[in-house]
Amino acid sequence: MRLLTASKGLRSPQKPLISAIRCQHRSYNAAVIGGGITGLTAAWQLIQDRECSSVTIYEKSRRLGGWLQSETIPVEGGEVVFEYGPRTLRSAMPASLPLLYLVSNLGLFDELITTSKRSPAALNRYIYYPDHLVRLPTPDPDLSLMENARNIFRTITTEPLFEGFITGLLSEPNKPARPQEEWAIDESLAEFITRRFNRKIADNLVSAVMHGIYADNIDEMSAQAIMGPLRNLEDGGILFGLLIKSIMGKKTRSMDDFLAVDAVYKTPETMQRLDEINRVVKTASTFTFKRGTQQLVEGLTRALRASEKVRLVMDADILALDPPANRGHKLKIYTGIRGEESFDHVISAISAPAMARILDPQGQVKIDCDPEDEYRALWNSKKARHPKPNIGTVSGLHFFRHATTVMVVNLYYKTPNLLPVDGFGYLIPRSIPYEQNPECGLGVIFASASSSGESPVAPYPKVSQDSAPGTKITIMFGGHYWDGWKKQDYPDHKTAVRMAKDMLERHLGITEPPALVRTRLQENAIPKYKPPHIHQIYALSRWAKEEYHNRLVLVGNSFSGVGVGDCVRQGIMAATHGVGRHKLTATPRLESKDWCPWKEYNYQHWDLKGGVPTAPVRLFESDI
Ligand SMILES: Cc1cc2nc3c(=O)[nH]c(=O)nc-3n(C[C@H](O)[C@H](O)[C@H](O)COP(=O)(O)OP(=O)(O)OC[C@H]3O[C@@H](n4cnc5c(N)ncnc54)[C@H](O)[C@@H]3O)c2cc1C
């Protein structure tokens, strides 16, 4: 004790003290529920920790990877790779760093395909409105400033898609900001954009972009969760705020991204690759794998199977997970075949409703109940004699129960360059007339373009997923348009193929029959981020910490982002901060002090162990 309180001058250098503290840590065992990308990442990070004695992964199905599903199919003249889940991984500073470090740690860096920010797939993104493709105005690096300005002005003033765009932008700075108390209450994206700009911008532009990421309806999406950085600028006017930030070179960043970059394990090979990794982040708009995102799952699985610490339980049937009777007790997982197993930490990496079923198998906690009221009622009833229940955590999880279903249709045509335009693909806004979208299409990906690019390793040769010549297209249908549908309402394979062909003929004039088609209905695949999403995350986290004595960690795409990069970040956060095994310091582990943004806050008091591991300061202004 005296040593800890000794003045700085008397203290021996920091290192021995830290290792002395570390030595006091007991070894621990952990369970990870769910073998999707979040769970596999968490398990991989856990086994890097010397104190972690074993990791048990429970996966309900017979395959690992969750929504990451790729298939390589032989066709005439070569092979094509179809993706049934994620395909393009966003490259952004610093959000994609944990994923890129993981890729490199697994020895998969050479397997990446990067799409340059200057390529047509990055520059040419379209919205279909009202009956044709409109290229979103992006400066073309091959044109002069004047030529770009003229092109952008022409598009914005002549295309019906941009009706109301200029007036919406010009009127924004004069719109009063909401009073602080009102502003603090979350609202829908549609409300926010309409309030600050106008309805047309919300319906035509924002709804299209959200179809491409969340497949959801902007009337039901949380503005704070999805456009927090913009919403924070409301006080002085959003456009003015953006201008000032760009002059000052500031960007709004997520604290969790920095926490994950700090915590993610980096092999010596990865440390040697930092320049190459930074180059990808700076020059690429997206990246993927030569044989599809499944390669990431295979890499993780290989590494996990090679570790003596890991036990993989497939076809797992978790019946229940009880809250511990007191702080010193481990968490108990009950399975059908294996019976009862105890763990120091449990990381849940499954959807919120699936976890709610495990924590409350009898379904006793009512949906939308107020946990405080329920506890009071319990206290006044005889049930109070039973061990402390988990009403707060279960009811908190119930909030995140909604998700959209999408039908993914992959098509391959023998003819190369079949598309009328070059680019990434197009999105369909909710304002599109019914006659142009009776199939409930969300967007079309020109998959040949998005799955080819260059290797991230010098001399950066051109690479493509497909060895067969031809054109690959992916269409996504459904999303929020199918909310409330029953199983029997969804299109079957034959119907989905017909819908795809009809749509491509109407929108792009494609009449050639595809040489290969695969469809996949992905049910409840993309979680809905309803308002007040962020508030509910902190509330759930508090309950879970309390009821499970900081031993239960909740991550996955239900909470802090649906992208693969977001899931990897959450997996890293869970296996480090979430299990109390990463200490924040004010000394940068990477190049500069900007990589420790927490030191501007009272980070010594941040409690990141258990619950949803996320910083109490969500966003901050950064020079990076
Ligand atoms: C069609 C589609 C396209 C997408 N496109 C992109 C894209 O281009 N780019 C991008 O970045 N992201 C994309 N995403 C999003 C991204 O793929 C997902 O958000 C991410 O893969 C979720 O990973 P996860 O591990 O959190 O969850 P999941 O993948 O759902 O994994 C959860 C795992 O837990 C298992 N499980 C469930 N219940 C239990 C239980 N009770 N016990 C044990 N195990 C259980 C499941 O079988 C599954 O394996 C897309 C998603 C979909 C569906």
Task: Explain what the structure shows.
With 624 residues, the chain is of the alpha+beta class. Helix content is 35%, strand content 20%. It is built from 23 helices and 24 strands. The strands form 7 sheets. The chain has a 7-stranded mixed beta sheet. It is globular, with a radius of gyration of 25 Å. The relative contact order is 0.18. The structure holds flavin-adenine dinucleotide. Flavin-adenine dinucleotide (FAD) is lined by residues 33-39, 58-61, 66-68, 85-89, 316, 318, 349-351, 354, 358, 406, 408, 522, 525-526, 556-557, 562-564, 567.
The share of residues in helices is: 25-40%
Q: Runs with pLDDT <50, length 5+? A: 1-24
In total, the number of strands is: 24
| N-C termini distance | 39 Å
The number of distinct helices, counting runs of at least 4 residues, comes to: 23
Given helix and strand content, the structural type is alpha+beta
Strand order of the largest sheet: 8-7-17-18-21-16-22
% residues in beta strands = 15-25%
Work out the radius of gyration.
Answer: 25 Å
Molecules bound to protein: flavin-adenine dinucleotide
Per the principal axes of the C-alpha atoms, what is the gross shape?
Answer: globular
What's the rounded overall pLDDT mean? Answer: 93
Biggest sheet record: 7 strands, mixed
